[in-house]
Design brief:
By secondary structure, this protein is α/β, with parallel strands linked by helices. The protein folds into 2 domains: about 5-200 and about 365-375, Rossmann fold (3-Layer(aba) Sandwich), CATH 3.40.50; about 210-360, Glycogen Phosphorylase B (Rossmann fold, 3-Layer(aba) Sandwich). The protein has 14 helices and 13 strands. The chain has helices at about 20-35, 80-85, 90-95, 130-140, 145-160, 175-185, 220-235, 250-260, 270-280, 295-305, 310-315, 330-340, 345-360, 365-375, and strands at about 5-10, 40-45, 60-65, 100-105, 120-125, 170, 190, 210-215, 240-245, 265, 285, 305-310, 325. Strands 3-2-1-4-5-6-7 form a 7-stranded parallel beta sheet, with helices on both faces. Strands 10-9-8-11-12-13 form a 6-stranded parallel beta sheet, sandwiched between helices. The model has no long low-confidence stretch (mean pLDDT about 95).
């Protein structure tokens, strides 16, 4: 326990409910630090989600700021994801105290190089090498307007990355990203700190299921690209039953699924329904075209599901390869699915996960690492 060490946390979005990507890391980091006695002053941006009174259970104060989306925020050399989160009110509130500032993602870093904060302890929480992420989105985008936006944003993010030198500490989510950032910022303190995820123990069921699950936020370009690839090249070529589940699928994805008798789409499942789907699947399949950051849904299915089938980019830099079944080509994915459906998920498989995940991805232990860094540097 601490004696009420205090910290400002700037979140790129409202971190509740914790039902997608980096927001899962933000929320469970807040929850863990609160349980360890840290006094949290949360600052978050409103975007497509309402204020969340639930956050007051974990934070000494919660401040909301409206994100400035639209064309005007795009007319800048600053990245759109940063420019649209500029806020005088945020700067004003941060200047009311002298506590360390944790910037969640590059999205929230517009004040990182501000001279008013040069004597503050500033921590950058990395979730992706952002310009790499947007470059891959550009390469995969189908519409010319999307492709152009992603290329421009990638360029702006690469320029903006130089400002990370103003962070006293960087906390990165994968060893691969740590190596990259250390090469760019050799004089900065950069630590590998796995994502927070909220799972306390393995709840995976032994035995067999009767379907394959692919899930994710289906309004996110990366996940839509992966879902379309899997439908066209894998799911449509097997006889096993497949469920695709996630938030906000568009009509294009719905139409693709409708053409395949063995695929069912479940849109906007509740948290319990999503967890049940993960736990009861025989195979959870995850696929990505870019090896950036740590995909939090990978951790989630390892804690809750049976067999986890991934491509190697999904595991890059995570040290989780031995807990997954790897396949990179269409043929390999199909072959591995057919092999896995002949196998039973065992208690030995569960024990291996328990040992490995407890060692690397323990929220409390990682929360104590943050507290130690705060105590040593503040």
């Amino acid at each position: 326990m601490t004696d009420k060490l205090s910290i400002n946390i700037i979140s790129f979005a409202v971190p509740y409910p914790p039902n997608y990507g980096g927001i899962i890391d933000v929320f469970y980091k807040i929850k863990t630090l609160h349980e360890l006695g840290v006094k949290i002053h949360l600052h978050c941006f409103l975007y497509n989600i309402d204020e969340a009174p639930e956050l007051e259970d974990y934070c000494a104060s919660v401040n909301y700021y409206k994100r400035k989306t639209g064309f005007k925020s795009n007319l800048s050399l600053q990245p759109y994801i940063v420019k649209s989160r500029e806020s005088k009110a945020l700067a004003h509130n941060l200047l009311k105290n002298n506590f360390p500032i944790l910037f969640e993602g590059m999205h929230s870093c517009f004040l990182l190089s501000d001279k008013r904060f040069e004597n503050r302890l500033k921590i950058y929480r990395e979730s992706n090498i952002e310009h790499h992420y947007y470059y891959h989105l550009a390469k995969s985008a189908k519409r010319l307007s999307d492709k152009l936006f992603y290329y421009i944003e990638s360029f702006r993010l690469k320029l903006f990355q130089k400002k990370l030198k103003h962070a006293d500490i960087m906390l990165v989510v994968s060893s691969k990203d740590q190596e990259y950032l250390q090469s760019k910022f050799p004089d900065n303190k950069i630590y590998y700190l796995p994502s927070f995820h909220g799972n306390r123990k393995i709840v995976s069921k032994s035995g067999k299921g009767n379907y394959i699950l692919y899930h994710g936020n289906l309004s996110v370009e990366e996940n839509v690209i992966a879902a379309n690839y899997l439908i066209d090249n894998v799911f449509s070529k097997i006889s096993e039953q497949v469920i695709i589940a996630g938030l906000k699928p568009d009509n294009s994805l719905r139409n693709r699924v409708a053409k395949c008798d063995n695929i069912r789409l479940i849109a906007n499942p509740y948290e319990k329904e999503m967890n049940d789907l993960i736990e009861n699947a025989h195979v959870n399949i995850l696929y990505t075209h870019q090896a950036t950051g740590l995909k939090l849904k990978l951790l989630n299915v390892l804690y809750k599901g049976r067999f986890v089938l991934v491509n190697s980019k999904m595991c890059a830099g995570t040290n989780l390869d031995e807990l997954c079944v790897l396949a990179d080509s269409d043929e390999e994915l199909i072959s591995k699915i057919q092999i896995l459906f002949q196998e039973t998920f065992s208690e030995e498989d569960i024990a291996l996960r328990q040992n490995k995940l407890t060692e690397l991805f323990n929220d409390e232990r990682n929360g104590l690492k943050i507290i130690s860094l705060l105590s040593d540097n503040f």
